[in-house]
Amino acid sequence: MGPHGTQVGLLRVLGPAHVWALGVGIVLVGEYMGWNFAVGKGGAYAALIACWLAGILYTCVAMIDSEVTSTVAAAGGQYTQAKHIVGPLMAFNVGLYLVFAYTMLEAANAITAGYLISQVAALTGYEGELNQKPFIVLSILFLAWLNYRGVLATLTFNLVITAIAFTAIIILFLSTSGVLGGSMMQHKALFEGAAALPYGWIGVLAAMHFGLWYYLGIEGTTQAAEEVRSPARALPFGTLAGIMTLLIAATLTWYICTGLIPWEFLGDGTNGSVAPLFDAARLTGSQPLVVLLGVGTLFATLASANGCINDASRAWFSLGRDKYLPGWFGAVHPKYRTPYRSIVFLVPIALAFALGAPLDQVITFSILSGLLGYTFMPINMILFRRKWPMDSIKRGYEHPFHPLPSIVLLTLCAVTFFAVFLGYGTQLVAMIVFYIVASLWFHFWRYRFVARAAQFTMPWPRPKGY
């Protein structure tokens, strides 16, 4: 509630460019770090195959999200979709998937930012090992403050730094591939013998785990549904333009890094490359490229962490507003019109993982939560079309070839679950057990506080068959 008893909500101030900046901004850091663990799992070619298969998976995600979210235009994204189409228990779980996926990704970004600052300090002649933890804390606190102050400034900031980070990848590609001069690529030498596919096709399967990191988070565009001026136009345009941008960036990133860096170093998560594009720039010997890619890496991590705070807080806020969590979290700031309590509450959780967990583990937890959310989406889409056929409600966007994208998405999710199980079976089981326990808590305790009659808020006709 605002002054004098008036009710306040989130502001509708965003356009298609902000949606693009939110989706690409969260994900582009995946080109700057994390994807290279796929090389360690299966070699260079395995990482490329995983990149394109994951690209198909996320194209299906973007198509499905564009249709459903442009129709269910409310904060919470996939959580709100599940609430209207599947039911409360599924919605509660999807809300948790979103919060954990984005919070873990935020922690991974902060870790990378701290690493990058320590590397820059070493290049400038700093002696000794720089303590990265203060920079990790400061980056998260600054971005949380920015989100607290307003969504328009937050995503305008994301738009600028994401565009710079994407341009840096293009410039590095043009400078090293031979387009603007002599080529520096050493693919033939680096791919000799078994180097390109050292573990055979089982390595391709294992690489699918980290192949998702190229695109993880593009579905976050749905969290802006309640804050865009025209959901039917801005959400499909921003989301589909975003996935096209990421497909280009991911392929160029693979080409640059595998052509300059040996796969053994590129894929080593312990003693190898943490920021592969930055390392590739260092290998060129060009100081301007090193500076540009250092700035690009830092901007990509900040843009991603910034978008993650935005998306995680909207999902948590939506759960609180609907009483799936304590209603205290559903508050909107009377001046800044942001879900300020949710923003502040999630900060210490992100800090705990950023300061106390290894990068690959944090990435794995984020991927697993995201993957569980993607597995729900085909079911959601099929039920949506079945309950409300094409001529029954107005849609902002109608994705083609239904139900083929849903079937492809479900198949690729199953393959990726198996790939994750090969390398991180314990974490997979632990995560599933956690969500089962959370579901039991919601069913037997929390659901009694939910205002059931207020759950269905869309002005749609009765579902077909009900």
Automatic annotation (TrEMBL):
GO cellular component, one term: membrane
Transmembrane helix is among the record's keywords: yes
Topology in membrane: Multi-pass membrane protein
Record field: transmembrane: 20-38, 45-64, 84-100, 132-148, 155-176, 196-216, 237-256, 289-309, 343-359, 365-384, 404-422, 428-445
Domain Amino acid permease/ SLC12A stretches: 26-428
Domain of life: Bacteria
Alphabetic keyword roster: Membrane, Transmembrane, Transmembrane helix
Cross-referenced Gene3D superfamilies: Amino acid/polyamine transporter I
Location(s) in or outside the cell: Membrane
Gene Ontology annotations of biological process type: transmembrane transport
Broad class of the protein's primary localization: membrane
Full protein name: Amino acid permease
Organism name: Stagnihabitans tardus
Lineage: Bacteria, Pseudomonadati, Pseudomonadota, Alphaproteobacteria, Rhodobacterales
